[in-house]
Amino acid sequence: MSATASMPRERVFRLVPATTAPKAATKTATTAPVETSPVAPLKTSCSSCHLREICLPCGLAGNDIERLDGLKFARRRIAAGQAIYHEGEAFHFIYAVRMGTFKSSLVLADGRDQVSGFHMAGELMGLDGVAHGKHASTAVALEDAEVCAIPYSHLNELAATSSNLQHIVSRLMSREIVREHSLMLLLGSMNAEERLAAFLLNLSQRLKARGYSPTEFHLRMSRQEIGSYLGMKLETVSRTFSAFQQQGLLEVDKRHIRIVDVPAMTRAFELRVH
Amino acid sequence: MSATASMPRERVFRLVPATTAPKAATKTATTAPVETSPVAPLKTSCSSCHLREICLPCGLAGNDIERLDGLKFARRRIAAGQAIYHEGEAFHFIYAVRMGTFKSSLVLADGRDQVSGFHMAGELMGLDGVAHGKHASTAVALEDAEVCAIPYSHLNELAATSSNLQHIVSRLMSREIVREHSLMLLLGSMNAEERLAAFLLNLSQRLKARGYSPTEFHLRMSRQEIGSYLGMKLETVSRTFSAFQQQGLLEVDKRHIRIVDVPAMTRAFELRVH
DNA sequence: CGTCTTTTTGAATACTGTCAATTTAAGTGG
DNA sequence: CCACTTAAATTGACAGTATTCAAAAAGACG
Known about the structure:
Number of strands of chain A: 11
Oligomer: homodimer
Distance between the termini of chain A: 36 Å
CATH architecture of the largest domain in chain A: Sandwich
Largest interface: A-B, 64 and 66 residues
Mean pLDDT of chain A: 82
Order of helices and strands of chain A: HEEEEEEEEHHHEHHEEH
Strand content of chain A: 15-25%
Low-confidence stretches of chain A: 1-40
CATH topology of the largest domain in chain A: Jelly Rolls
CATH superfamily of the largest domain in chain A: Jelly Rolls
């Protein structure tokens, strides 16, 4: 058995520029992150942000929204393939995605990384850093992107003035826990088809919530990254895509996806999760 | 991810009796939970609790500890097999384990449940309920147990008076996120031996932190529950135990475990996670 | 003492992983 | 602009690990 051996799994996986058309970056995602970011110190207020319904302010009443506008934070542009923060770095900021898509990942002993999540507009990243004051994962942009860098200590000060605001932060953390719950369910008890169906439907819902088509979209991540996230090999991901296409559930052309038969997809996935 | 119905597929999953029914209680863990618990309204203070180093107060300074003593909560005894709360129920309390072991689990569409964690003395349960005001998992005692039922709203009031205290709560939530991260790593990229090794070593560490032997202990959970937690079938768990025994890493007698070769176990597991 | 559950073990099967080859898309540089 | 190089994705063949089905042994409990 492979208690010890079984080492060389895959060859080198360098962090790729990540997207189909990222002319923007030959850089290898190892650029030093600038936690004390200057770049785009544009003043932005949550109350007027087009993402306010799905981002941090979500659920806040008028009074607290104004208070949230007291929050000072910088916007930062991130080129495709660049990291905002790395696992192990000191934790100071949480990040709200304004534009683009990110993956967060954890490093395994053999140097590969496992993707633990994908993040799109309005979603927060970095909350896992609160635990030990260090980032517990690495966040990399899958395409040119923009984030709000929110100083965590500042957010806390503000939260101290409003129990509602405090509750929002707690709720966001808890939501992250719940999100990971469902990923655990997926990894622990679904087969390849169910995993991919769950993944695509989840993506679909999130795109829909952001005003995009829920049935036709462009994947920002590679088969390798999808596989890493879903706990399967890239070849299996590819095969499963093909299988769905043959079954008439999907139309797949590389990273362009069209969900043809939503009910059937939903069935394939709901079989296991309720 | 959510859903409504579920449909047949090709493979049949019969509904198994929900769980390895614990004999201590022929009741099927469906006892109505008493959120507004009376039972044991003993006044307990954190500052004098023998678990203070590993439980809620962990990391608090003298001043805040006293403040924490203002926290009013009840102790509750839970019989083996009984649930403290069920998935979907309104969330009001978080629970700190005083004695005994718990599992928390999520229900799958086919009626089986997947174990998402095991909890022992000093650990908190229920933080996943903050997200939506409903418990996102079910917590069941694996042996006769005792918990502190802490009213979440009360904890919040108290937290509002101390930023340190607030930070403690946030940190605990974040720690839960990080904990789930590592489970995701495990489920996403380890084989059976690595999973079981990781599980046993984790258990070992936690027992050690509580003053028990890290190398010899009694499992409170069945093969079925371990398998559910680790994303493998109970037969595979059993076989893997046997394999470890044959390799001279473990001595196994049903639920009695003795880790004979800790370094080798560690290697089997560290191979993947750093 | 009989019944029910848990655990172990065997044999066969199924699924995913591994290895390898090919195709397609895209970036690089002459 | 085209030839060259590199990466992503697809597909086939085969291997290996975990699951499924089945049966038996070992406890636990009334």
